[in-house]
Amino acid sequence: MENEIIEEFAVFTDWLDKYEYLIELGKELPIIDEKDKTDVNLINGCQSRVWLVSEYKDGKLFFKADSDAIITKGIISLLIRVCNGKTPENILTSDFSFIDKIGLKENLSPTRANGLLSMIKQIKIYALAFKTRDEK
Amino acid sequence: MNCVEEIRSLFPALKQKVYGKPLIYFDNAATSHKPVSVIELQNRMSSGINANIHRAVHKLSSDATDLYEKGREEVRLFLGAENREEIIFTSGTTASINLLAYTFVPHFMKKGDIIIISEEEHHSNIVPWQLACDKIGAKLSILPVDENGILCVNKLEGMLSDKVKLIAVAHISNVLGIINPVKKVIEISHSHGIPVLIDGAQGIVHTNFSVKELDCDFYVFSGHKIYAPTGIGVLYGKKKLLEQLPPYMGGGDMVNTVTFKKTTYADLPLKFEAGTPNFIGASCFAPALKFASQVRENSLFQEYERNLVLFLFEELNKIEGLKILGTPKKIEEKIALFSFTVEGVHPTDIAQIVDKMGVAVRSGLMCAEPLIRRFSDTGILRASLSPYNTMEEAEQFIISLKRAILMLRG
Predict the structure, then answer these.
(1) Contact A19 B377 (CB under 8 A)
(2) What spatial distance separates the first Cα and last Cα of chain B, rounded to whole Å?
(3) Mind listing the pLDDT tens digit for each residue in A60-106?
(4) Which of B346, B363, B407 sits opposite A20 (nearest CB)?
(5) Do A47 and B349 touch (CB under 8 A)?
(6) Contacts of B308 (CB under 8 A, 6+ apart)
């Protein structure tokens, strides 16, 4: 899946085309229910807000998310594509390096504070929680 | 200097390209670029005149001390202050306000006393006071701004009492870009015997004033927003007030004599300059403020800024769903700094896209969360210009902005 995304982005030579694509992806993101946009599900980035909910089915994780910023949403949709259906173990060992490979590394810098890094952290926290629960 | 192009040629940073596009730097309220005169002095000191100041008798130390004190003199002239003792070097506006918060509050205030700040303050003029007030049980009162971002000076008189011990307001808010009627604030406060601190982080760059004429008790600003390096700033204070304040930090040059029983302190300004100061940064105030003086005293540049303000005001207002924060009654009160929201579009999205077009602007809460939250949930976008920005750049910015909005609204 990660390679598929890297290939998709390889066609863009212009920055703006890349962002056009992210905006499109952002629009297609499975929007979470308004009722799930709670403070509990809110991941606080400094500039854009991100909500994340997870579901655990048959040993696999599924996520839904939303953000008030559309580019953030676009990148979230990529993260979700990569994470959905993976086992907690898989998620915990993933380094999400594809984000770097498609030239969006800056979005994962802790100082950019757009919520993505916190989102990955939150995804891993969910994975760890379900893994721990399984092991009990 | 007669034209913008001439000024631009003095700033190497403006010649660069980002993502292959010419850089349009509209984030000057955050930090300004440096002219060659500042860069050269910085280099000359780092590579040669590098010795600790005030202490040694050797040649390098004496040269460095001269440059440091020359920097102080240039600041004194630029501010129109009477005495060099009134110019304290700090690491920046934030450090200057903290210095005051930690000395003024415990010294002049007691439980139940009040400091008045305004609704449009930067966090640096909020949080130090909260920290200091919490310690002694004092509190903050907030002078509001109206829906157009205009400071409600008419409400000040009604807020004053013998409990109010200090008023701390911005000369120009880093969000609203409106020149506040600080002279009026000072007159009202002084008629009640209350001292006033002016946060000049933005005001120092965009207004022509003297502290003597304003009669403010304290004026603070940073070097890096006015062409000097980062990590240097100024606290101006009236001598009679600074003399009464206890030292802030101990150590280094701030003493007269030290014994284990008792230490006596140096006179102003060294009393507040503990430790080895940023002597290169302070020295660079000389070329930086020389440049700033040339600009602020040249009516051509004031006229140019006026035109930029008018152009941007008009063009931004044409964009559907765009709302400017900070619209004074008279356009003369607005500096070339525009914060705005765009309906249905997140400011961070716009900032990310125009960045790829070479345009540097800020998005977010601007370190003024209480003010921004009143106007927007998602933050704002801010374009802040400097005398080295051109009309062509302003036009290009508008084109880029429109294109980004179109992409995002799709």
Answers:
(1) no
(2) 45
(3) 999 998 888 898 889 889 999 999 999 999 999 998 888 888 888 77
(4) B407
(5) no
(6) B336, B385, B389, B391, B394
DSSP class of residue A38 equals S
Q: Residue B218's beta-bridge partner residues?
A: B197, B237
The fold adopted by the segment(s) B4-30+299-409 is Aspartate Aminotransferase, domain 1 (3.90.1150)
Distance, in Å, from the CA atom of B97 to the CA atom of B124, rounded to the nearest integer, reads 7
CATH number given to B40-292: 3.40.640.10
Chain B hits for A49, CB-CB cut-off 8 Å, are 378
Locate B170 and state its tokens: 């911005």
Instruction: Give B249's DSSP letter.
Output: S
CA distance to partner chain B, nearest, from residue A1 (Å) = 26
Q: Which two tokens stand for residue B374?
A: 């009143």
DSSP B88: E
Which residue segments constitute the domains of chain A, with CATH numbers given?
2-135 (3.90.1010.10)
Kindly report the nearest CA distance between residue B338 and chain A, in angstroms: 19
| Packed helices A15-28 and B391-409: angle between N→C axes, nearest 10 degrees | 30
- Identify the CA nearest to B173 among candidates B140, B145, B139: B145
Residues 6 or more apart whose Cβ sits within 8 Å of residue B48: B60
**Does A46 sit within 8 Å of B365, measured CB to CB?**
yes
Q: What 3-state DSSP class applies to B114? A: strand
Q: Which residues pair with A135 in a beta bridge?
A: none
Task: Supply the pTM of this predicted model.
Answer: 0.94
Tens of pLDDT along B287-324?
999 999 999 999 998 899 999 999 999 999 999 999 99
Virtual torsion, Cα B344, B348, B350, B353, nearest 10 deg? -140
Burial class, A20, CB count within 10 angstroms (exposed 0-12 / middle 13-18 / buried 19+)? middle
Paired tokens of B368: 């003024």
Q: What sign does the dihedral B50-B55-B58-B59 (CA atoms) show?
A: positive
Q: What single DSSP character describes residue B215?
A: T
- Closest-CA residue of A relative to B347 is A69
Q: Are B242 and B268 a contacting pair, CB within 8 Å?
A: yes
Q: Are B11 and B33 in contact (CB under 8 A)?
A: yes
**pLDDT tens-digit series, residues B126-158:** 999 999 999 999 999 999 999 999 999 999 999
- Residue B176 CB coordination number (10 Å): 30
Q: State the amino acid at position B73 in one-letter form.
A: E
The residue ranges of every structural domain in chain B are 4-30+299-409, 40-292
C-beta of residue B179 within 8 angstroms of C-beta of residue B206? yes
